[in-house]
Amino acid sequence: MESNLTGLLPEALLIGVPEIDVQHEEIFCRIEALKAKSFGSGPPSLDGFESLLDYLEWHFASEERLALQRGVDFADHARVHQENLQTLRKTLRAVRDGSRDVHSFLRYIEYWFERHITEEDKPFGDSLRSWTS
Q: What is the pTM of this model?
């Protein structure tokens, strides 16, 4: 996979695995695009939100694939991903039915993802980089 970072992802959030860093940056780009579309306009289309969650699911599968290829234990990390996707999909349903606010959803997903990278993906990146064939 090509690894071209645009500079949106702060250095503090890089994990040192180019394929994953590019995906992380794409997630933040998508969040920023959704923020721009959601503020100051009428009710937003939620298609972009569904697309973001689908991309997150694909990204999580990418991390799992890398872990399996390199023999890194990923069970706990995978569980965190599954729980997060379930929570986000449930919350998006609440946004869709009007019982939750789209802006709160965006703030939550951005905060969760930053924390997840710092606390879980950085050690994961260390494990991937320390693997030798």
A: 0.89
